[in-house]
């Protein structure tokens, strides 16, 4: 699927529909396609676009240096939409390492152009192989259940978001009906695996015992 200008409401809506059942723009891991669209979006979208907001917060959790190491991905932007340029060389001494990570051809590049770009990306990866490995992270969706339909859900979410840990980034949230007028809070977060324990995080949420009845893990994905 190709998108229009993601700086417009129409383009963002198309992107939101696309990400409804996908974690990334191209494939099953973050790629330069995610970086390209992330740069085009420019800022966190409105909560009315929950899938784009979830994806945006996830890509934002990587540093600029980490995003530069993402593998190549197929650009989803329609012809005519603004595109990003390849990262600049780190220094004059590394001019020979320059490579166009995104390419500048048409959306439907031919097989020869794809082969050449893959060869350049492989050469770039070989030269940069001494770089530190990406930090292991996980994307988690938590179901936080209240005691009853009289629980103040806005205050409950506010309390949950007060939890701060090194390596924890809160993302989008929404209320999901569970029956009898009761809603559960479904909230996304990204954690650095070496710094944040999921068990400890759920225990901290359950400490808000005036609001929280239980916490379940709705989704857990390594990224």
UniProtKB/TrEMBL annotation:
<dbReference type="InterPro" id="IPR014038">
    <property type="entry name" value="EF1B_bsu/dsu_GNE"/>
</dbReference>
<dbReference type="InterPro" id="IPR036282">
    <property type="entry name" value="Glutathione-S-Trfase_C_sf"/>
</dbReference>
<dbReference type="GO" id="GO:0005085">
    <property type="term" value="F:guanyl-nucleotide exchange factor activity"/>
</dbReference>
<protein>
    <submittedName>
        <fullName>Elongation factor 1-beta</fullName>
    </submittedName>
</protein>
<dbReference type="InterPro" id="IPR036219">
    <property type="entry name" value="eEF-1beta-like_sf"/>
</dbReference>
<keyword id="KW-0251">Elongation factor</keyword>
<dbReference type="Pfam" id="PF00736">
    <property type="entry name" value="EF1_GNE"/>
</dbReference>
<feature type="domain" description="Elongation factor 1 beta central acidic region eukaryote">
    <location>
        <begin position="101"/>
        <end position="128"/>
    </location>
</feature>
<dbReference type="InterPro" id="IPR014717">
    <property type="entry name" value="Transl_elong_EF1B/ribsomal_bS6"/>
</dbReference>
<feature type="region of interest" description="Disordered">
    <location>
        <begin position="83"/>
        <end position="112"/>
    </location>
</feature>
<dbReference type="Pfam" id="PF21972">
    <property type="entry name" value="Arc1p_N_like"/>
</dbReference>
<dbReference type="Pfam" id="PF10587">
    <property type="entry name" value="EF-1_beta_acid"/>
</dbReference>
<feature type="compositionally biased region" description="Acidic residues">
    <location>
        <begin position="93"/>
        <end position="111"/>
    </location>
</feature>
<dbReference type="InterPro" id="IPR018940">
    <property type="entry name" value="EF-1_beta_acid_region_euk"/>
</dbReference>
<dbReference type="GO" id="GO:0005853">
    <property type="term" value="C:eukaryotic translation elongation factor 1 complex"/>
</dbReference>
<comment type="similarity">
    <text>Belongs to the EF-1-beta/EF-1-delta family.</text>
</comment>
<dbReference type="InterPro" id="IPR053836">
    <property type="entry name" value="Arc1-like_N"/>
</dbReference>
<keyword id="KW-0648">Protein biosynthesis</keyword>
<dbReference type="GO" id="GO:0005829">
    <property type="term" value="C:cytosol"/>
</dbReference>
<dbReference type="InterPro" id="IPR001326">
    <property type="entry name" value="Transl_elong_EF1B_B/D_CS"/>
</dbReference>
<dbReference type="GO" id="GO:0003746">
    <property type="term" value="F:translation elongation factor activity"/>
</dbReference>
<feature type="domain" description="Translation elongation factor EF1B beta/delta subunit guanine nucleotide exchange">
    <location>
        <begin position="137"/>
        <end position="223"/>
    </location>
</feature>
<dbReference type="InterPro" id="IPR049720">
    <property type="entry name" value="EF1B_bsu/dsu"/>
</dbReference>
